Amino acid sequence: MNFQSVSSVGLKWGLCACAILMVFVVRAQDDGETRINILQADAILRDQRQPDVQRLIGAVLLGYGDATLACDSALRFKDGRFRTMGNVRLNDGDRRVLAESMLLNPQAEKAIATATVGEQVRMQSDLGEIQATRVDYELDTKWVRFPNGGTMHEQSRSATFERGLFKVDDSLLELGGNVYIDDGDWVVMSDSLHWDEKNEKLFFHGLSHVLEQSGELELSCFFGAFDAAQESGWFASEEVGSGTKARVRQDDVWLEADRLEVPADSLEPLSAMGRVEIQDTSRVWKVWGSDALRRQGAGGENLVSVRGGSSGRARYMDASSSDTLWLISDSMEIQSNWTRLWPGVHLIQGQAAASCEELFWDDSTEQIDLLGTPLTWLEGWLLKADSMTWQLNDNQPEKLSARGHSGLILDIDSMCMQQISGRNLDAYFTDGVLNSVEVVGNAESIYFDTEKPNPCEAFNQSVSSAMRIDFDAGEIKDIVLLQKPEGVWSSVQGEVPELKGMAWKALPEAIREAFEKDRLDFSVED
Q: How far apart are the C-alpha atoms of 93 and 193, rounded to whole Å?
């Protein structure tokens, strides 16, 4: 018998011994370190060239706690690590990791699976299947990391990401880097998010965009939490007061602010805080302010309240007609067919402007009520009264009714003014242009002839129970005294005459400048 034959017999006896030994649980001892159980192997060999390495061959099965790992072969290193190769399958509860190569490290309590060229590591769970070039499975915490990103598929749901962490016990996926999720009902794109798959919730930690497949709901934010089942949550900008705001679109209306809170119950109010803007998708109109609240009114329709604050007052702009409409006040309430503004209200549209303490606009009747010392500037004239009502026709003025201490004033120059006063006043318009004015009750007028070189040197003062003033291109064409008329021309002696309460007041320049700025900003947005 030669040396070679002795070695062959020895090897056969060694293999038999190993096979018998595999009937029992064999432990890979690591000098006191965490152990991996060798549950099965056709053979355990040592390589003389690598004395610190054992080779496990054929139907290898390893155990670590509740997890098992099966493979075709493995290398066991002196420090207790195992390099498993060929048809590797890690099973832990309802999770499986499939790869061609996996490093099992008991000291780190981690299994690291890497893909070969052209292949993918696959992790299967109740989430579906995630494919990646590398999977780090932490055996103690049950956390699964995807440092190089991955792709998830589960029936009609899919997701891609550049890095990820699956916290198994929490059913939570933490994804980052160009995250894209499509679950059939929603499409989500994000720089960073946490996905509570069990409860259908998303938590955003980076610039994110969510779109309902039907197109009815859309949202964007930097931080936030979204409950897909309830279509509710909170959404915020990266930094309060600056940067990109959170945005929510329902149907054809956008709402954006530093922070938005959308309730699960439609009967509960939706709130917006900081740099609030509400705008239609066609960019025809916009409402903005510091804070806003949307709640359901008594009739079941949505009522939107907007307030101003330290950053500016509440404002409304509508560019649906040739003359842009602009409104500003401290507070606004808007419903589908009416709008209420208070206090400190200002309105500008075309060459017309108005101010009052409270304004109520009824779209169903095309009527605007101005209350609380209202003033209206129109074609150079100032109209004053205790209260005013505008009647519109296709958004153009048709009639203006002024009640109580009514008056019309036209500032000719710094020396004199055209003046008309009375208890009540009705102004009539043709194609939006002032045509005539009827004054009833204690009607008085002071009229200067503007065609004279010095119009302020003489005037006509008229008194009547009622009078009618006809206009042409904004100029007085005729004054008709209707009842008990009295009138006389006089030259100015000393002070220019002025009817009681008929002092001129110009539209504040700050209001005009605010309008021009908002109109410019609105057109730039388009």
A: 26
- Give the model confidence (pLDDT) of 401-456 as tens digits: 999 999 999 998 878 999 999 999 999 998 888 899 999 999 999 989 888 888 88
* Structural contact between residues 75 and 82, judged by C-beta atoms closer than 8 angstroms: yes
Write out residues in the chain with pLDDT < 50, as ranges.
1-33
Distances in Å between the Cα of 169 and the Cα atoms of 7, 276, 421 are 52, 39, 81
Q: Which residues contact 89 (CB under 8 A, 6 or more apart)?
A: 69, 70, 71, 96, 97, 98
pLDDT on residue 34: 57
Nearest to 173 by CA among 211, 229, 133, 126: 126
Provide the whole-model pTM.
Answer: 0.79
Q: What is the CA radius of gyration of the chain?
A: 41
Q: Which tens digits make up the pLDDT trace of 48-78?
A: 788 889 999 999 999 999 999 999 999 999 9
For 32, the enclosing helix (H) or strand (E) is: none
Rounded to a whole number, what is the largest CA-CA distance in the chain? 153
Tokens 């009647």, located at residue: 391
**CA separation for the pair 147, 394 (Å, rounded):** 62
CA-to-CA separations, 300 to 115, 188, 260, 266, 295, in angstroms, rounded: 58, 32, 22, 10, 9
Alpha-carbon distance 345 to 341, whole Å?
Answer: 7
